[in-house]
Amino acid sequence: MSAVSSSRGIRAVVLVVLLAMFAAVSAGAASAEQYAALGDSYSSGVGTGSYTLDSACKRSVYAYPYLVAQKRANTSLTFVACSGAKTSDLLANQLSAVTSTTSIVTLTIGGNDIGFADLIYRCTLSDCSSALDTTRTNLETTLGTRLDNVYTMIKSHAAFGAKIVVLGYPHVFSGAGCFGTLGISSTEQSKANQLADALDNVIATHAGADGVIYQSAIGPFTGHAVCSSSPWLNGLNLFNTGESYHPNRAGHSSGYLPLVRAIIG
Fold first, then answer.
1. Residue 157 is among the residues annotated as catalytic for this protein
2. What is the pTM (predicted TM-score) of this model?
3. Which residues pair with 135 in a beta bridge?
């Protein structure tokens, strides 16, 4: 065999090997489950103290969506949850992350629509009992149609049979007092938790009607509220108020992460 023929043969073998490797890599990428994480600060990771993924939206490597993707083999994460997001923001700015190849979607949404965080901050400065009661009474009127729009639009964009997991909000307070509840009376704590129960109810009802999966956070976070011996939520932080009353790193890894994994594996 001539040197030229031998060289051509070697190049042909190398080309075949490279094409096979490229095909294997492409097949692996194509088969990765596409996961879109949408929602507000409870999904972006506010409260975990580190926002290296996106400082504007406060996306954290300690947030449950990032942890889910890290713990599941062959999972490709599109992480667009953003601090402060309302239902309208999700539809306008986040929905494009959900495509016909998206087989997993998770989200928390609705808390900012009713101004939950602002209500709790108000409690530290003055009596908020009446505002908490009024917000609870008007929950369905405020949120019902908005939630339906979010859930149905996500379903219409995602892959057929996609697992769409809507996560709820926990009780923030345990009834105990500490610096983390500065200015918030036991009555206000109780009414804030009643609001969380009512919100849980509204979200669960609309999720069920719209054919998406709802996972309540109230049970898993019981015993881990602000001022508990093992808190999964931050109390009042006077130096960084945005961190207040949000899940800490344990809240994401031990609270929200298992709720998602219970559905998607």
1. no
2. 0.88
3. none
SS3 (DSSP) at 220: helix
Q: Is 246 a catalytic residue?
A: yes
Instruction: Give the model confidence (pLDDT) of 150-170 as tens digits.
Output: 999 999 999 999 999 999 999
Q: Side chain identity at 59, as an amino acid letter?
A: R
Q: Which of 216, 246, 252, 253 is catalytic?
A: 246
Q: How far is CA 116 from CA 49, 113, 159, 202, in A?
A: 21, 8, 32, 15
- Residue of 41, 44, 228, 253 marked active site: 41
Unique residue bearing structure tokens 């009042």: 236
Confidence of residue 177 (pLDDT cuts 50, 70, 90): confident
* CA dist., res. 262 & res. 204, Å (int): 17
DSSP letter for 26, please. Answer: H
Residue 193's identity, in one-letter code, is N
DSSP string, 84-101: T--HHHIIIIIGGG--TT
